[in-house]
Structure formats: structure tokens, C-alpha cells
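Repro case for the chain-ordering regression, as requested:
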Amino acid sequence: MGTPSEDDLKSQKRAEKVRRILLLAFGGLLALMIVAGVAALHSLRQLDGIEQQINERYSAHSQALTTILISVHVYHDQMERYLLSGENSEPSIGAADVQESGESVRNALKSYPVDTEPEEQALLSEIQQKFTEQENSFALLLRPSAGVNSQERQRFVGEQMMLRHAYILQVSQEVSSLNNKKLTGAKQSLAASFRMVQTRLVSTVLLSLLAGLLLSLSGGFYILRLERQGRARYQELVASRQELESLSARLVDAQEEERRSISRELHDEVGQTLGALLVDLGQLSKLVPADDNLLREKIARIKSAAETAVKSIRDLALLLRPPMLDDLGLVPALEWQAREISRRGEMEVDVHSEMVSEQLADDVMVCLYRLVQEALTNAARHSGAKHAKVSIVQNEGTIRVQIADDGIGFSPERVRGMGILGMEERVKRLGGSLTIESEPGKGTTVFAKIPVEHSKPV
Amino acid sequence: MLADDHKLMRSGLRVLLEQQPDLTVMGEASDGREAVALVASQRPDVLVMDIGMPSLNGIEAAAQITQSNPEAAIVMLSMHSDESYVLRALKAGAKGYLLKDSAEADLIRAVRAVAEGKSFFSPAVSKVLLDDYVRKLKRSGTEDPYDLLTPREREVLQLVAEGKSNKEVAQLLNLSVYTVETHRSNIMEKLNLHGVPELILYAVRKGIIS
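-- result from build under test --
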């Protein structure tokens, strides 16, 4: 067993450490999951924002481009109508109108979103340039000093204006396709980043799962180990309790053996020697002349001293180990004990027995004898009982003993003296049971039940 | 013959006995088994035997001896004056019961009494038995059933307790054997006794015999 306190301290420390590690691990796992969730949410929201931005930008650009295109169309249409209306008919559109729509084209160009890329910018400025050329040409045509006739105008419109218009349209087409391309690119990069987010999310989820699995595995192992340890410790406890029980049983045996040997020693050696001494003294006193009173008196004194010694040694030997148990068996020994107590005037004890075998095992006899002795001693000493009744009955492999007194009683739940513990120990050792019924003022009854084997009732 | 597991005690007893010119110690046994064997082979007139002996105690040995020879004269030697011992010794067939304390004073008387077929009990034993008996009577508040016996029954009681057979009693009292038997069963019933040993014990108690 070593030093239990040190071991305990160590294991306590280890348990503390493991608890902390488990707490940390679980906390870490939880934090990881929360962080992963939050990050994923954030990324998704970001992606959503980017997508919205892309869409907004695209629609703004295409709308601006549409505005430019429409205004260019309007301008061109007006200019064409103006130029082709001829001198004979009153033109439905004045030059001022044309200029006005030119203005709206410029405005449209100007209001094109500023975040344009160089490529787009270049295309736009090309449009701007072509349009400026167009306007300049138109301004040239409008000049009264130009003196151009309708054929020339028609040619001009047909050659230059149409060309430029077509060019502008073409460039616008390019801008539009550029925009489209940009949208596609942005969408693609968005999808890529979405995939990235997805990958990240999946990997964090996998990581969390893995960590969780690891954690639960190690936790499971730890619990298993704890359980194993607990079981081992329980077994240790059971073993040590058994050891303790067998130890106390051995103690009872040893005590009984010791008593027996001391008793025998006293009885056989000292007692017999004194007995022989008494016999010799008797002989001696016969040899003394009748008139030698001094010697007679001396011998008588020695004799009386020897008799006293014999008596006290006998009493002591009887108390330690009544030879009745060996010579006569249990019931006569109990009867002897009862009469002995009655003789001393402590209280009156009756013994009633039924079917008790004369060949009981020695340990059973000793146990029951000591049990009755203890109960009667308690009754005589502490309870002030006047009467006690011992009943001992054997049937079907069981001996039941009951010792009842009419004393003051006590609370068996509260009072547990060494005597009672000793009784319990003895009875339990033989596989029996002991109960004590008592209440203050109601006397005490001790019940004991002990299994017996290989003994025929007589 | 002597049987005691203590040499010292045996030698003391031997000295006491051999002081008497008409008594000789035929042999000594140191335990019950030896005593049984010796008695069977040497057939002594009287056996003086200690109760507490190893291997086979005196009571068991006495029981074995009287089983094969009911007339065997056995004086039990004991340190105990208790009823349990006396009764057990009587049941085992012992005729005399001698306390070791008083062995020196009473041994010769006991041996002679038993040899004549009478019983003998140390005076101290009678006293203890009587005291116990009186106390028990007082406690239970009953009258001594001895008063219930008729004078004739008392006579029969004494003679039976002294070890006489029914026939002997009948001859002594000039009665028929059948009448003696009736008296005996009446005595047993009145005194609540079971068997001759208890009857002898009762007689010792009452000081009817010693």
C-alpha cells in the first residue's frame, strides 16, 4: 500500500491536470467551431456584397452606355432629318435642336461612371472623339458660308456621317462586350472565392470533426481508464477489508488460543503444583507431634495461603477458559456460568436449552460461550438487571441463542461498546448474525444465530 | 488405580493411599485412553480418575468403562463443585465425586465407600449443590418437593441414591420389587427427576447421602 497520502495527492494532481486539459480541449473545439461559423458567415456576406456591387456596376455601365447609344441615335436621326429635309421644304427640325441633342450626347458621355478601366476609357474617348468629329463636321455644314447643296449634304450624310455613326455603334458594341466580359470575369472570380470559402468551411468543419473525434476518443479512453482504476481501487478496498476481517478473526482466534494456553498453564502447572503441595502439607501436619502447636499453626497458615492461591488461580483459569467447555460441552458450561453469576448474587440467570448437540465445533462453542458471557456481564454490570434468561436452541443446522434481561436497557443504535463489537465479530466470523433489541427502560435482548454443521442433536 | 495427567498429583495420591495397609495402587494412567485400557486389563477394585485429562477426559473415560462394566467403582477427581460436573460424572457412572482441595482429607473415605458400593461426595460439593438448590427454590417461589414425599418414599430415595438395586431395596424394606418400582417412579415424578444420576444429585443436595 505504501504511502497512501502521497499517492492520493499525486493522483489528485493528475486528475486536476487531466480535467484542465479536457476543459481546454473542449473550449478550443467550441471556439474553433464558433470562429469557423462566424468566418463563413462573414465571407458569405462579403461575397454577397461583392456580387451586388458587380451587378450594380454592370447595370450602371450598361445603362449609361444605352443612354449614350440612344442619345447618339437621336442626334444622328435629327441631324439626318435636318440635313436631308432639303431647301424646298421647311425643315421640321432646326439646327438648334440638333445641337441640343448633341449636348445630351455629351452629357451622356460625361455621366458615364467614372470607375472605368483604361480599356473602356480608351473606347469611350474614341466615341467622344468620333462624336466631336461628327459635330464639327455638322457645324461645318451648318455654316452659311459653306454653300453646300443638298446633293453634297446627302453625300456627306451618306459617306461621313453614316460611317462615323456606324463606327460609334461599333465602339459602343465593344464597350458593351467589354462590360459583359468584365461581368463574366467578376462572376467567375466571385464563384472562385465562393468555392474558396466553401473549401475553407469544409476544411474547418472537417478539422472540428477530427478534433472532436480525437477529443471524444481520448475522453472515452480517459473515462475507461478512470473506470478501470475505480474498479481496481474497489477491489483493493474489498481485498483490504477481507484482510482486515480475517485479521480480526485471527485476532479473536489468537486471543482465544492465548487464553486457553494461559488457563491451561495456570490450571495444570500452578494449580496442580499447589494441589500437590496441599497434599504434602496434609501429610506433613500428620507427622508433627500433637504438642508442637507452633509448628501446627505455621503449617495451617501455609495451607490456608496455598488454598487461597489455589482458589484464585482456579477462578482466573475459569474466567480465561472454562474447562467445562472442554470437559462437558456448551450447555453445562453455560449452566455453570449462570449458576456462578447467581452464586455471586449479581442476578438470577436461567438457562433453557433444546436439542443442543454435545459435539459442537470448538469455535462455535467458544463463540456462543463468550457471547453469553459478554451479554450476561453487561447485564449484570450496566443494566442493574435482576433476572436474565438464556435460551439456546438448535435445529436444522442452526443454533439460536437469546439472552434477555430485565435491566434498564439502552439504545443499541447509539451505544456500541467494544464488547458488542467483539460479539458481532465473533458471530460474523462463523457466518452468523447478531441483533440487539433494547430500549431505555425496557431491558435488553441479544439474539444470535449461527449455522452449524456435522453435529447431531442429542 | 489412579488416573491423572499430572505426575505430581498422582504421586501425592499414591502416598496417601499406600499409607493404608489394606490399599495398594495397582497402576497409574496419565490420560483417559490409558485408563480405559488399564482398567480393562487389570480390573482394579477402585479407579480414582481426574476429570480434566488430555485425549479422553475423565467423564468420557468413565462412561466407556461403566458401559462394559456397570459395577466399576469410580471416584471422580475434580476441581469443580458445580452441578454440571457432578451430574455429568454421575451420568457417566461415577460413584464418588471428590474435590481436589479436599482430596487429602477425604480420599481414603471416598475409596472405601465406593469399594463397598456406596456413593461418596465431598462435603463441599453437597454444600454448593444445596445452596444452588435452595436459591433456585426461593427464586421460583415453589415449595421444596421433598416435603411431598411420604416417609416410605424418602426411605426408598435414600437407598436408591446409595446405589442399591430395586431388589436390594425390596429386601431391606420388606417390600415387593414391584412396589419399590412404583415408589421410585412416584419419587421421580414428585421431584421432577429424570434418571438415577439426577436422583443421586438430588439426594446429595438434600444431604440425604454424602
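Ordering looks correct now. Chain A has nine helices and five strands.
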